[in-house]
């Protein structure tokens, strides 16, 4: 039996809407996609910048031994995590690789201001694959043989924002803009470099350390070429586990937590 044209049109529109919502759920960009977290009192959810993955996993082990609290991490680009929290994604703590994302959550009254602390610093560096030999400075990124340069997406990745500031300050951005390959977080930049899929990349020194023998650090961006690289952490306002979240912050800023961060290439805030 033939379908009524009007009904067919409505059906198509409904299908398109459903597909669009499904896609947004996958990306974590549709508020209604986030279900209420079950009341699991022994689990703490922490949304943290991708560059913190190794250090925070070790700190979480220390925390679990002391408190018994299970910790579930959501690692990603700080800007993407910020948007998720704004849209109601479950999170007890937010640790950002930049002040901008935390400032915007604070402006929307989505964190507990009294809990906010800066807990680490970082350094921006230029790296290349281990077998690379074409660059010795940021200026060399303009060379014809350098075709692909991985950087964080400045719209959502703090490392990308610092990179953009540095390249502008060095007056390199217009020259190399067409070579830039934008990654969704700083660890993806590192992956591109370690696999030799790009000629160079700009990451944090802590990520370069994770790259080990698969990458070479070429140069450090001057500190005055970008905003200070500070990592803030704060309890999310709607957290039902604010006390446990505060204990994790206390551990991160303690001498023991700072030692772990330094071990993974961060600069202590102390």
Please outline the helices and strands.
Elements: H1 5-27, E1 43-49, H2 53-67, E2 70-76, H3 78-86, E3 93-95, H4 99-107, E4 117-121, E5 124-129, E6 149-152, H5 158-169, H6 173-176, E7 180-183, H7 186-194, E8 200-204, H8 205-211, E9 215-220, E10 230-235, H9 242-253, H10 255-263, E11 267-268
Parallel strand pairs: 1-2, 1-3, 6-7, 6-8
Antiparallel strand pairs: 3-10, 4-10, 4-11, 5-8, 5-9
Helix pairs in contact: 2-10, 3-4
Describe the structure.
With 270 residues, the chain is α/β, with parallel strands linked by helices. The protein has helices at 5-27, 53-67, 78-86, 99-107, 158-169, 173-176, 186-194, 205-211, 242-253, 255-263, and strands spanning 43-49, 70-76, 93-95, 117-121, 124-129, 149-152, 180-183, 200-204, 215-220, 230-235, 267-268. α2 (53-67) runs antiparallel to α10 (255-263) and α3 packs parallel to α4 (99-107).
Shape: globular
| Biggest sheet character | 6 strands, mixed
Query: What's the CATH class label of the largest domain?
Result: Alpha Beta
Strands, total number: 11
CATH architecture of the largest domain: 3-Layer(aba) Sandwich
The percentage helix is: 40-55%
How large is the share of residues in beta strands? Answer: 15-25%
The third-level CATH topology of the largest domain is D-Maltodextrin-Binding Protein, domain 2
**Tally of DSSP helical segments:** 10
Order of strands in the sheet with most strands: 2-1-3-10-4-11
CATH superfamily of the largest domain: Periplasmic binding protein-like II
Mean pLDDT value: 88
- SSE string, helices as H and strands as E: HEHEHEHEEEHHEHEHEEHHE
**Low-confidence segments:** 1-33
Structural class: alpha/beta
Cα gyration radius (Å): 21 Å
Number of domains: 2
C-alpha termini separation: 75 Å
């Amino acid at each position: 039996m033939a379908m009524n044209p009007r009904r067919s049109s409505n059906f198509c529109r409904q299908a398109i809407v459903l597909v669009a919502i499904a896609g947004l759920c996958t990306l974590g960009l549709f508020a209604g996609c986030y279900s209420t977290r079950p009341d699991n009192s022994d689990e703490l959810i922490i949304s943290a910048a991708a560059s913190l993955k190794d250090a925070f996993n070790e700190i979480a082990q220390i925390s679990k031994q002391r408190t018994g609290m299970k910790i579930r991490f959501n690692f990603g680009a700080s800007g993407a995590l910020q948007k998720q929290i704004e849209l109601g994604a479950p999170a007890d703590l937010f640790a950002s690789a930049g002040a901008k994302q935390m400032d915007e959550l604070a402006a929307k009254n989505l964190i507990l201001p009294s809990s906010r602390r800066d807990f680490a610093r970082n350094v921006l560096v230029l790296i290349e694959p281990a077998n690379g030999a074409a660059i010795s400075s940021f200026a060399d990124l303009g060379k014809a043989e350098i075709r692909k340069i991985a950087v964080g997406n400045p719209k959502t990745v703090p490392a990308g924002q610092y990179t953009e500031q540095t390249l502008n300050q060095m007056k390199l951005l217009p020259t190399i803009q067409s070579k830039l390959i934008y990654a969704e977080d700083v660890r993806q930049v590192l992956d591109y470099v370690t696999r030799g899929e790009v000629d160079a990349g700009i990451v944090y020194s802590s990520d370069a350390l994770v790259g080990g023998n698969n990458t070479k650090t070429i140069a450090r961006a001057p500190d005055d070429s970008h905003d200070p690289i500070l990592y803030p952490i704060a309890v999310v306002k709607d957290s039902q586990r604010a006390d446990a979240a505060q204990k994790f912050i206390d551990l991160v800023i303690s001498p023991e937590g700072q030692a772990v961060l330094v071990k993974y290439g961060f600069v202590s805030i102390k």
